[in-house]
Amino acid sequence: MNSIYGYSESDFENYLLSLGEKKFRAKQLIEWIYRHKITSFDEITNMKKDFIAKLKEDFVIDELECVKLQESSDGTKKFLFRLSDGNLIESVLMVNEYGYSVCVTSEVGCNMGCAFCASGLKKKIRNLETSEIVLQILMVEKYAKIKVTNIVVMGIGEPFDNYDNVIRFLRIVNNPLGLEIGARHITVSTCGLVPKIYEYSDFDLQVNLAISLHAPNDEIRNTLMPINKTYKIEELIKAIKYYIEKTNRRVTIEYILLKGINDTMACANELADLLHGLNVYVNLIPYNEVLEKPFKRSLQSDMKVFFDVLKKRRINVQLRREQGSDIDAACGQLRSKEMKREGLWEER
Ligand code: SAH
User: Fold this and answer.
1) Which atom number of ligand 1 is nearest to the Cα of residue 157?
2) Other beta carbons within 10 Å of 68
3) pTM across the whole model
4) Position 333 confidence tier, pLDDT thresholds 50, 70, 90
5) Which of 163, 234, 251, 288 is most exposed, with minimal Cβ within 10 Å?
6) DSSP 3-state assignment of 233?
7) How far is CA 175 from the centre of its chain?
8) Which atom belonging to ligand 1 lies closest to the Cα atom of 254?
């Protein structure tokens, strides 16, 4: 049986047409599911009994079990969810001036193997189903009693390695009759799967793109991110240019500052050269140290110098504010001690 949360409006339309039903019922279904938040198909009042019986046969209205909820002193909340097959995933809710932002997980584990990232310590077990990504939003709204206004696909996993499900997820949460989360309020982050960046450039929703760059040249990037051996920086930049040309949207460049590795003035200048003339925005991220990794956070003074060099070179830049680090909810810290405890954790 399919989860009701895995179907986009056009999926419902195809389903309805295959049953000889009217297409417009897809819109009604979206409203029942995401506005009225039905927990049983019997709550639907404007459809025939036999059609409702058919829905019950074909779909389940499921949930994610919240096994743990941690709250940070800054208001950030981290949710640990158990999937129906027992796998555990995490989502993070952040409170901002502009609303409520959720960071969702896209895969169980991750195969990208970035040297500094704790999330990637666990090998990929499987893709998340579309419904499992959608449900993260719904469950966070339910438990925190808020309305999510922004989404970042920056939790565990590489979203472009689970492309189709992530795209379907974006369509569902963006639907104006449903959760109605504006495309401009959604950002997908990738470590640089170049072919998918091209595909994403042609996607019809105006969703944002973030690139985890973390190095100004191949030499350094090769040591940090295995993906760089497949897609070199030059190819990555070409793909970013294509995205900008196609969408007219500014791309976010994520750059973690790692002490003694990518945080020198020379690196800052090289980064400025690389990004010169591109419509990008650099997010400098203070590294969150993780027990399992040898990397250290850059000194405050070095971060400042790095920032100043970029500013002086007229690159749009900001130093990212940290949220939720005291509950291991900050970037790269999403890894569940619970999984270790339950023996579900397999180190690479
Ligand atoms: N796989 C995608 C989505 C994950 S986004 C991607 O790589 O973009 C998570 C972001 O946090 C990435 O930019 C990642 O490089 C960064 N990150 C990972 N470990 C971190 C750490 N320990 N401290 C700060 N940022 C980290």
Assistant:
1) 1
2) 14
3) 0.94
4) low
5) 234
6) helix
7) 18
8) 13
